[in-house]
UniProtKB/TrEMBL annotation:
This is DUF1254 domain-containing protein. Residues 322-430 form the DUF1214 domain. Residues 51-181 form the DUF1254 domain. It comes from the Bacteria.
Amino acid sequence: MRITEAYVRMLAPHVYFWAWPMVNIYNRRLVFDKAPRPGLMNGVLPLAPLNTLSMLHDYIQPEQRWVACPNQDVVYGAGVIALDKTPVIVQVPDFGGRFWVYQAVDIRTDSFARIGAMYATKPGFYLLVGPDWQGDVPPGVSQVFRASSDTGMVAPRVFQDDTDDDRRAVQEVIAQIDLYPLAQFDGTMKRHDWRTLPSFAQPGSNDAGGETQWVVPQTFFDQLAPVLADARPLAGEQALYAQAMALLAAIQQDPSLKAAAIDAVSRADIEVIGPLLQFRNWGLPRGQHWSTVDNGAAFGTDYFARTAVARSNILVNTARETKYLYQDLDSEGERLNAAHRYEVRFAAGQTPPVDGFWSLTLYDAHHFFVPNALHRYSLGTKNKTLQLESDGTLIIHVQAASPGKERESNWLPAPEGADFSLFLRAYWPKPEILDGRWTPPAVHRVG
């Protein structure tokens, strides 16, 4: 039936907001599909053909702009899975006592596999399959994980101390991390020296220093049909899918309606999606202006949280794997800005309660690192030179200028004169951080 332009302008932004994370992952699949072989995009970010993996060999560099809110606590890997083409084998080495976790998410950014230290996962081989796969599981595969969509991503994270000794030691472990099509499985551990990867030029663009634009209003409706075909309805979503498909049918038949839909979602991208980059605009309050989400990578039909996380810090782990706490404001509710000096004081014995490790990371207003003379973007467990006060208090100095040589070990450099955000990660969190009994201290302005 005919529908009005006003109805299109009402419905299109709703569909856009709902499907934004799915189109985001879909477009990452399109880019990874162009990779000639495993390598590093611009020498800084893992890129590999579909159903394969690329690994860094050290912390991620500040130049990358593909994923907002990276961390410098782990050695990252990344691969896009296309399970409509083939199931894939995930290869897990023996990590010993080192923290590690493999994230495997579907096109909705929900996790579908439990592979990591917190799950007591044993070394070996694990199989990821699509929603319709009915093949035989070969001998030697320890467990099968079924995704709800054919498109997804796998991202290993392996803890590394900020020391030259551990940079060398981690190489033997990560050499056995791999991802490959089931047909290549022979029951033996494949090895790679990830330090020898080639570098590729970036097939994308950045927006004024921000994250690469993965969802483009002008092409969104051209991509929506294959995305919805992959991301099957969750319970209760059938009517939403029907509305989206009816919208597509109408705008495909009438160019003026399509122009109206694109105009409406272009506005929504700026007015609704854009503000979600800022942590202070969403999340569950955790005191002292810190916020969090409790359903990361398990969003279900919480469309607001899913899109807010996808816009600001996509590809989060589940809460059992990592608890994330976000901060844009000081203790007085003023925007953090490096024209001022701040302190974050952890009382004795009150650093984040974890079975893995923790870190406090600083990002610019776009949620990326700003290069500094120390090449330091976070402080936490990985840092072996942190100094405690005589009473056991840990003070982290957050400011643009050095707090003095005697305090530089506890200095988290901020971008001079610019807004910034703080981001606390608690890997393998203990119950008291999951249920809110422990919360981070306030960020106090001291000058």
